[in-house]
Specification:
Number of helices: 4
Strand content: under 5%
Oligomer: single chain
Largest sheet: none
Order of helices and strands: HHHH
């Protein structure tokens, strides 16, 4: 079974969010992370005879290679992101959310629909004296 079949939903989700290239790279990172977890679990049982606190040498090699592959993929994703941002015209950039209102509402744009909280402050109860 192809990876495109077995991880179809995950690939589709990431491609929708990030674009085709970055989405597939993101799924690749997820797959490498899953492999690291499996090798880490296996490393608990296959320890080095020289140093029992470390996994066997072959597992150490596989772990370092997968970590290196993840770093390369992350660098490619970052480069693609930078290229996309550099090619994005100013008219298509997302404008910042205006923060016209401030204060009690925490900068909410829809402050005109919120009740006036100033008049609703709790008053100290009067304690009757005997």
């Amino acid at each position: 079974m192809s990876v495109f079949d077995s991880r179809h939903d995950e690939i589709e989700k990431h491609e929708f969010m990030m674009g085709a290239a970055r989405g597939r790279l993101a799924v690749s990172l997820d797959m490498l992370t899953d492999a690291l977890v499996l090798i880490g679990q296996h490393g608990v049982y296959c320890t080095s005879s020289r140093n029992p606190s470390k996994p066997a040498l072959d597992l150490q090699t596989v772990l370092s290679e997968i970590r290196g592959a993840k770093e390369l993929i992350q660098s490619v994703m970052e480069e693609l992101r930078k290229q996309r941002e550099a090619n994005l015209p100013a008219s298509k950039s997302i404008p910042p959310i205006p923060t016209k209102h401030s204060g009690v509402d925490g900068g909410n744009r829809h402050a005109e629909f919120l009740p006036d909280w100033k008049g609703l402050r709790a008053k100290k109860p009067k304690i009757p004296t005997r």
